[in-house]
Amino acid sequence: MIFCVGRVVTGIGNGMNTSTIPTYQAECSKSHNRGLLICIEGSTVAIGTVISYWVDFGCMYGSDDLTWRFPIAFQCLFGFIIIFGLMFLPESPRWLFARDRYEEGEYVIAALAGQEINHPDVQMQKTLILDSLRA
Questions:
Q1: pTM of the model
Q2: Of 52, 92, 108, 46, nearest in space to 75 by CA
Q3: Is residue 58, in this structure, part of any structural domain at all?
Q4: What would the pLDDT profile of 3-32 be if each residue is shown by its tens digit?
């Protein structure tokens, strides 16, 4: 029963990841990089699946405890890497503006573009986001 609950929780988590990562990438990347980043995200999912299949195959020949404990524990490594990496990602500018955190939103846009906050491109991006939120 515990494994069934775990499968549901990880399935929901994976569904949330695969639906929010492309949106976040689209909001935080330059337009000429978006397609590449989406492809990298899809490739990462496929590579992770291949790794899990090979780990399961390799553990098949081990002891009874190894055949199920190691694959379950091994997937936690990637979860910790993702959680650690999230600490270094900026908030979505659109999310910040939607919550009336305008200064932070401007700062994130400027940091992502490598420009000053008062640069015309940063202000134009801010205006586009605010207009889309008002629509």
A1: 0.74
A2: 52
A3: no
A4: 788 889 888 988 888 888 888 888 888 888
Does any domain span residue 56? Answer: no
Cβ–Cβ contacts within 10 Å for residue 106, how many?
19
Q: What is the pLDDT of residues 30-52, one digit of tens each?
A: 888 888 998 998 898 899 899 99
Q: Using the structure block, give the residue that is written with the tokens 């949330």.
A: 16
Query: Which residues form the domain of 95?
Result: 91-134
Residue 26 lies in a domain: no
User: Does any domain span residue 115?
Assistant: yes
> How many domains in the chain?
1
Distance of alpha carbon 41 from alpha carbon 44, whole angstroms: 5
